[in-house]
Design goal:
With 212 residues, this protein is of the alpha/beta class. The chain has two domains: 138 residues, Response regulator (Rossmann fold); 64 residues, Arc Repressor Mutant, subunit A (Orthogonal Bundle), CATH 1.10.10.10. The protein contains ten helices and six strands; from the N terminus they run E-H-E-H-E-H-E-H-E-H-E-H-H-H-H-H. Helix 3 links the parallel strand 3 and strand 4. The chain starts with a strand and ends with a helix.
């Protein structure tokens, strides 16, 4: 197997040194470029074409997420791992949207880092354990009964309150100054979002899940 060529980009020289030391201590892995900014990382990628890029998020000139987009825009086959101290749902969503192959924390063990390099080379996406747990929690929160109401718009919640009171489309429309047909459209959207088939089931679910 050919050497795995790596680019390390981080604005902290100590972090670059630590990662480079880890990588260069392993046979068949070589750091071919180091960068302290996103712009430099992008230019070095174009010059060196490494197999994997390790990018920090917070870098001058261009952050790691934008650098990831730029690299993948230049070469859709590039493999990028974001490596950061930041663990948040906001960053997770941005990293995934940018198309990165991984999101790892800087406190990851040497073994985990090296194992994930091999996985990325096979085309897999990789995440630190803490990131995987955040993804699982995010999924559960989205589907948790207490958060179903987050799927509804303010107007849908307003109409749902009237529906649970047993009011007709005509009566609801008169109070909200909209047509009965518009109310019926909202009612249908509510049933679709809450995955029920009739108004009775809609009311039961609204009350059971404490949506209002």
């Amino acid at each position: 197997m050919d050497d795995i060529r790596i680019l390390v980009a981080d604005d902290h020289s100590v972090v670059r040194y630590g990662l480079t030391t880890i990588f260069n201590s392993v046979p068949k892995i070589t750091v071919v470029a180091e960068a302290s900014s996103g712009v430099d990382a992008f230019e070095l990628y174009k010059a060196q074409r490494p197999d994997i890029c390790f990018l920090d998020i917070t870098m001058p000139d261009m952050d790691g997420i934008e650098t990831c987009r730029s690299i993948l825009g230049f070469d859709p086959n590039a493999k990028v791992i974001i490596m950061t101290i930041h663990l948040s749902k906001e960053y997770l969503n941005k990293v995934l949207a940018a198309g990165a192959h991984g999101y790892m924390l800087k406190n990851s063990s040497k073994q985990e880092i090296l194992e994930n390099i091999q996985k990325v080379m096979k085309g897999e996406r990789v995440f630190s354990k803490a990131v995987s747990e955040l993804m699982a929690k995010s999924f559960m929160d989205t589907h948790d009964s207490g958060n179903i109401g987050n799927l509804l718009t303010k107007r849908e919640k307003e109409i749902l309150r009237y529906i649970t009171d047993g009011q007709t489309n005509q009566a609801i429309g008169e109070q909200l100054f909209i047509s009965p047909r518009t109310v019926e459209t909202h009612r249908a959207n509510l049933m679709q979002k809450l995955q029920v088939k009739n108004t009775a089931a809609l009311v039961r679910k609204a009350l059971r899940e404490n949506i209002l």
